[in-house]
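ok so for the tutorial part 2 we go from a plain amino acid sequence to predicted structure tokens. step 1 is just haveing the sequence, like this:
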Amino acid sequence: MRRPRSPSELARLAAPLLGLLDAGWQRMHWWVAAMAVLYAVSGVTVVKPDEVAVVLRWGRLVGETPASRQHGPGLLFAFPRPIDRVVRVQTRHVWELAVSTLASAYDSWSTRGPTLDPLVQGYALTGDQNIVHVDMVARYRVRDPAEWAFYAPKAEDVLRVDITAATVRSLGEMGVDQILAGERKRLVAVTTQRAQAALDDAHSGLELSSLELTRLAPPAALANEFDAVQSAFIGAETTKKEAEGFAQAAIPTAQADADASVQSAWAAAASDLARARGEATAFLALDQEYRANPTVVRERLYRDAMDRALAAATVDWVPPPAGARYQGLRVSITRAEAGAPAPMPQPAESQSRAGSPTTADTIRRPRADEGGADE
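step 2 — the prediction. this is what the tokens look like for a chain of 375 residues:
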């Protein structure tokens, strides 16, 4: 067992080292003091206007409430490292992240052969078991700096995983025709909602501002077939829209024409009914007058008929007969020359009895013993 050396011997051995330190302090004491001051003020941090800072002291957040944990723009005084660590977060800045985990790595199907190995190229299955490739761009920002600085791992990895999982689930609930035709907005909305819920459950502190589908297409081997189906669908929708537009323009016109025809028919019916009632009333009045004075009415009707017939006829001058009357004289009037029938005369007993003689007064009815000649 070795004996401990005496203090005098230890002091003698340490004397050169102590002398060296004392000489260094005498020459560089102000450098050491300056380094100590710089280390003490290294905990002062300048927080920019678009940033929020949180302080981790020995790995724990400083502050009891979310409001006390966040420090706004300005000077932030904290202990130097390794005691405190200041994390500055840009809460107003929006970052972009390309998510291509479900996209094809090759433009042509024949580049690597007909394979759908997820380790080679990504893809997703729709609800009707069709394959699609999806390229997306996510825009996000930091909503809770405390959660983002303390709980969250690498932000891009968490965001990429959650968006991929939400996209696969949403595509599995929809058919390929709906996705490629007109349901992209609903797909993006459902995927964004589910991805944000997953980010909140993971305490990532991130907020997904928007999600954009930059490419949503079937595999390259089926691109032509899908394009043909898409073109047919668009053509059918265009034809349907044109038919609906024609119907919207034609139906009001047809209704207007129908209404006009109905109104015209009602007007014609009312006019015909009024005319028929007038003629019936005139006929009843004439019949009543005829029953009272049959001879006078018969003579007046005969004269009126002859006046209408002779007024429409063209008769050349006929020399006077050699005897007392014409023999075999006949005047023929065609229907076209006779014209439209004259209106029924109104009963007027005074005119039939007292009036100047007309041309018809000079025409005499043939008697039965005159040979039946027409005059």
